Amino acid sequence: MSIITKKQVKRVVKRVLGMPEKRWVQSTDTRRELYPDWARILGDSGGRWEAAREAARNGPQVLVATGLGGHTAMNIVESTLAVALTLRGARVHSLLCDQFLPACQMANADLYPDNAEFAKYGPTNSLCLSCYQPGRELWQSTGLPFHRYSEFVTRRERQEAEKLAAAIPAEEIGAYRLDDLAVGEHALAGALRFYARGNLVGEPEGEAILRRYFNAALLTTHMTRRLLKTYDFASACFHHGIYVPQGIIGEVARQQNVPVVNWNPAYRKHSFVFSHHTTYHHTMLTEPVANWENLPWTPAMESDIMEYLKSRWQGTNDWIWFHEKPEENVAQIARELGIDFSKPCVGMLTNVMWDAQLHYRTNAFPSMREWVLETIRYFGEKRPDLQLIIRVHPAEIRGTLPSRQPLMDEIRREFPQLPANVVVIPPESQVSTYAAMAQCNAVIIYGTKTGVELTSMGIPVIVGGEAWIRNKGMTMDASSVPEYFGLLDRLPLAERLSPEMTQRARKYAYHFFFRRMIPLPFMVAPPGQPFHLEIDGLDDLLPGRHRGLDVICDGILGGSPFIYPAEEEREPREAAAPAAVAAA
């Protein structure tokens, strides 16, 4: 039975792979063009690849748990890591879902306009057909040990998982723990990602699809347990670390004391963030300040970070940005918003409500929605002396998965008439977030990474959620509702951040953007295309060829920090005048 039409299949790839529709016509052939031609690359090595595999036969075993054969970027990056690790003596194993899971990260509601079809049939007769085959071909072409999900789950376990997923009350799924594994949390995060929503309220098939993700999470748990008991892995490396299946693999690996490494594309072109133990969503919050606060600070480093931060206004040095031509003229912004910047303003930056919906211990509010609505109510009822400027995240409409729960709708539902002193910049607006926030006395954030940049501009920041700037000694962090409103009561502030605190912020920004974001220059992504690998041959992946690759492989194999010593790559320069952004 056909679950989605050919037109919808094209949209699958356009959304999931980020490719123009016309390039998806060949399906598997197209992926062969995008994926590295390891058969050729390794075959041209003059026997060195065979020698490397033989030398690594008794080396430390590493699991590269890719899982999703049709996720282009994931397979390109992780197959490259697998080859590089083999060249460094590791016995690398790969892992793919072989059309086995009843739901996974590859699926989303945009691909299934009739959600009832996905609720009933899942991805097996649609997405799975074009996912597993190209991934299998890619990984088997390396000659490395290759494993399938179905090999490690018994018939009885399948039956028990299906039975539990059907019987448990839906409201208990998110908190469900199996032998102290947060299986339900990742299942709920997967369902929310499917719908691109912060909750499932109002979705007729929401419960059925949540149960699908819960079943998939249980099956992934059984699979991972048996796989890790079968092989003595020294470490496991895989993308992101949340959702289904990656989040569950991480949960099981940590419980079985297998070191976990997670990664994600970073903001700067050709760069990636790697983290030990769990997803970077968590590790960036708790990273020791000792990793960066004692960096010897030089004029060259100051100039480098300020030039880069200014470039982020247009995204010229990034491969993730949301505005082609942002409006930076302050007078024009004031006219568009109908706001008087000569009066005290407070900025507010939101996130996409569905993104990375995991449990955080120190959130002041149960969700971003409540944070936004309660903040509007506070300014409307108690602070007529201040103007609140809310910038809705552009990724709501320009991200990989456009939100199906727009924040503007939530605000209108609660406030049909906004308080006179509250202005909302919608996600489609070309108003520069940076230019607007630079006019504010202080900025309130929930989880946005923009807090790193704002503090570097000397702008005071109040954190109500889990932004990475929290716990770095330069922001006002709230861990409870009373504490949060106590901080708002202090507004407007008498002055901006001190020069010493601003320098501390810039030092962290340098660490964040240049040291934690590790460059892999051979990973390129032309506009509108997914990553692809550009190397001349196997020698380009040998130790000593790319320092960023060495840092990553050393971290996976030896547990060393995923910190790129960017400061060592710079020649000392004469003191330079601060970049224009510093005075904003």
Description:
With 584 residues, this protein is an alpha/beta fold. It has 2 domains: 6-263, Rossmann fold (3-Layer(aba) Sandwich); 292-515, Glycogen Phosphorylase B (Rossmann fold, 3-Layer(aba) Sandwich). Helices cover 42% and strands 11% of the residues. It contains 23 helices and 15 strands. The protein has helices at 6-17, 28-34, 38-43, 48-55, 72-87, 115-121, 127-140, 155-167, 170-173, 183-195, 206-230, 243-255, 280-286, 299-311, 330-337, 368-382, 395-398, 407-414, 433-437, 450-456, 481-489, 499-515, 547-558, and strands spanning 61-67, 91-96, 146-148, 233-239, 260-265, 271-276, 345-349, 387-391, 422-425, 442-445, 461-463, 476-477, 517-519, 523-524, 532-533. The strands form 3 sheets. It has a 7-stranded mixed beta sheet, with helices on both faces. The chain has a 6-stranded parallel beta sheet with strand order 9-8-7-10-11-12, sandwiched between helices. Strands 14-15 form a two-stranded antiparallel sheet. Helix 10 (183-195) packs across helix 11 (206-230) and helix 11 (206-230) packs parallel to helix 12 (243-255). The chain starts with 5 loop residues before the first helix and ends in a 26-residue tail after the last helix. 48% of the residues are buried.
Q: What's the arrangement of secondary structure elements?
A:
Elements (H helix, E strand, L loop, with lengths): L5 H12 L10 H7 L3 H6 L4 H8 L5 E7 L4 H16 L3 E6 L18 H7 L5 H14 L5 E3 L6 H13 L2 H4 L9 H13 L10 H25 L2 E7 L3 H13 L4 E6 L5 E6 L3 H7 L12 H13 L18 H8 L7 E5 L18 H15 L4 E5 L3 H4 L8 H8 L7 E4 L7 H5 L4 E4 L4 H7 L4 E3 L12 E2 L3 H9 L9 H17 L1 E3 L3 E2 L7 E2 L13 H12 L26
Parallel strand pairs: 1-2, 1-4, 2-3, 4-5, 7-8, 7-10, 8-9, 10-11, 11-12
Antiparallel strand pairs: 5-6, 6-13, 14-15
Helix pairs in contact: 6-11, 8-11, 10-11, 10-12, 11-12, 14-22, 20-22
